[in-house]
Amino acid sequence: MSKQEFVVLGQDDAEGCCPALLTAPLDEGRAETLAKVFKALGDPVRLRLLSMIASRAGGEVCVCDLTPAFDLSQPTISHHLKLLKQAGLIDSERRGTWVYYRLLPQMTDRLAAILTRPAGQPLTETAPAGAAS
Amino acid sequence: MSKQEFVVLGQDDAEGCCPALLTAPLDEGRAETLAKVFKALGDPVRLRLLSMIASRAGGEVCVCDLTPAFDLSQPTISHHLKLLKQAGLIDSERRGTWVYYRLLPQMTDRLAAILTRPAGQPLTETAPAGAAS
């Protein structure tokens, strides 16, 4: 049984989906929760690990296939993977000697939804402020 | 003339859009660039500031209207706003006494696209690994 440490985003939202980010001021609690997920993504090694896991045909990657891509020790890689897992972005399963990782697409779907502008709502003009001055 | 310090994401991509995150391993350079943007989002005060700016009717907010929402000094708020601006998430314009901020939706659009799964490509199953063990 895998130990889940999900960050739960917006379970009590009206649409059961996502806290508003672009359409309403975020409250402190949700900002804290969401910031932890973005912080997990705010590191180049973790982004590379996530992309390697997410893009793998078959949906999962052995940690033994991740480590050689980096000039980092296995404990360091494992630490980064732990942070991605704690953020709810990936899950892991030990089978025999190795741990296998896979994307939890629910979380990336939620982040994508949070960052997507509502249809028909152009928030601002596209020209940079001051461009015409 | 506003001083732009945009992080440029994936301008040389085939579709002129976004570096792959979920469909192909991210290279080191792009991971560094993208991590800076996510790092800017990885703070609850900055997320709240971004949501206040993005959701404001009219599309821009005076810094004088942002500061009172926080138990933080104006220099601290200005520092957080500077980091959001350096990440290409917001822009600013000084008019008279005050600085006005607005969302740069191009960047949130790009992040949303990066985090969106390609159509018809269910990357993994939704049941947590180990749930059946």
UniProtKB/TrEMBL annotation, chains A, B:
InterPro entries on file: ArsR-like_HTH, ArsR_HTH, HTH_ArsR_DNA-bd_dom, HTH_MetalResp_TranReg, WH-like_DNA-bd_sf, WH_DNA-bd_sf
SUPFAM superfamilies, sorted: Winged helix' DNA-binding domain
Pfam family, one: HTH_5
Residue ranges constituting the HTH arsR-type domain according to the UniProt record: 26-123
Keywords linked to the UniProt accession: DNA-binding, Transcription, Transcription regulation
NCBIfam families: HTH_metalloreg
Name of the protein: ArsR family transcriptional regulator
